[in-house]
């Protein structure tokens, strides 16, 4: 892809990742992450859909995605966009908030803060202070800064994001789904997780949910923001990521997670994450 480039870093022991990229032609397929994902647009404009609406992030704006927020993304014009992204595991966010609560209140509410992770109402935020903090953290991670400095910058970014952009404690982003539909979607999701290697049919999902194929599709889209087929592919990709992070060869990761072959895994890995499986496996720029 002419003009497109990316750099990537992955922590070997924690769910903490960073990416710096410029895309003109690459378009992200709809996907989500298990992590909180915070990004800053450096140049240009990125257009994406998230939570049922279209958004555009231009230079200086912050993107804030909750875990499991489905989104896509592409350049808003022919000039492309440059951005940096940091993915932070929910457990790391919980640890920072717990430590912060302990410092302020001698641990009185530490357990409660761990249970109540923050949510971000808007996927695009104009906040120069938060953007500057994210740039400092991102530069430290990709630049090989000392571990202590990286931890300090991570703490500062999490606290700044929660204080400046979060809407508070626990909530249900998809609370509008009817209880019956939510139950259908959860049963289908459990089956997709349990049998992600299997080439499941729509009839099989309807049978496990006790409803029609149409009801399954409608309930699943309402609850998870994507079709069951996209969700199954995402579960497979996440399983492949875990194998690759452990050093598995790409071909082995593909065969173990239900992809037809290495090229099939590579194609969807790039469409969903903007990097190749080999880049992810190496875990450094």
Task: Describe the structure in your own words.
The protein is α+β, with helices and mostly antiparallel strands and 285 residues long. The chain folds into two domains: 5-168, Sandwich (Jelly Rolls), CATH 2.60.120; 179-282, Arc Repressor Mutant, subunit A, CATH 1.10.10. The protein is built from eleven helices and eleven strands. It has helices at 90-105, 110-115, 128-142, 147-165, 179-194, 202-209, 213-224, 228-245, 250-256, 262-273, 277-282; strands at 5-10, 16-23, 28-31, 36-50, 53-58, 62-65, 71-75, 81-88, 119-120, 124-125, 166-168. The strands form two sheets. Strands 1, 2, 3, 4, 5, 6, 7, 8 and 10 form a nine-stranded antiparallel β-sheet that branches. α5 packs across α8 (228-245) and α9 (250-256) packs across α10. It is globular, with a radius of gyration of 19 Å. It starts with a strand and ends with a helix. Residues 106-115 and 170-175 have low confidence and may be disordered.
């Amino acid at each position: 892809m002419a003009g497109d480039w990316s750099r990537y870093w992955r922590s070997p022991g924690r769910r903490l990742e960073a990416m710096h990229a410029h895309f003109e032609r690459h378009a992200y397929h709809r996907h989500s992450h298990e992590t909180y994902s915070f990004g800053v647009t450096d140049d240009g404009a990125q257009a994406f859909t998230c939570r049922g609406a279209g958004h555009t992030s231009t230079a200086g704006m912050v993107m804030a995605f909750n875990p499991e927020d489905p989104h896509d993304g592409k350049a808003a014009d022919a000039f492309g966009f440059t951005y940096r992204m940091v993915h932070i595991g929910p457990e790391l966010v919980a640890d920072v908030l717990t430590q912060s609560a302990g410092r302020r209140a001698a641990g009185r509410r530490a357990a409660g803060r761990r249970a109540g992770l923050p949510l971000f109402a808007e996927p695009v935020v104009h906040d120069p202070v938060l953007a500057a903090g994210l740039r400092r953290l991102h530069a430290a991670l990709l630049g090989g800064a000392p571990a202590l400095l990286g931890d300090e910058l991570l703490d500062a970014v999490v606290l700044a994001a929660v204080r400046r952009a979060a809407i508070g404690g626990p909530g249900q982003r998809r609370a509008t789904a009817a209880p019956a539909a939510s139950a259908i979607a959860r049963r289908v999701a459990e089956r997709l997780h349990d049998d992600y290697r299997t080439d499941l049919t729509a009839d099989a999902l309807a049978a496990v949910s006790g409803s029609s194929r149409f009801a399954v599709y409608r309930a699943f889209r309402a609850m998870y923001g994507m079709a069951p087929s996209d969700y199954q592919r995402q579960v497979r990709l996440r399983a492949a990521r875990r194998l690759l992070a452990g050093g598995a060869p790409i071909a082995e990761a593909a065969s173990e997670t239900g992809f037809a072959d290495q090229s099939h895994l590579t194609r969807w890995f790039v469409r969903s994450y903007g990097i190749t499986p080999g880049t992810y496996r190496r875990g450094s720029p």
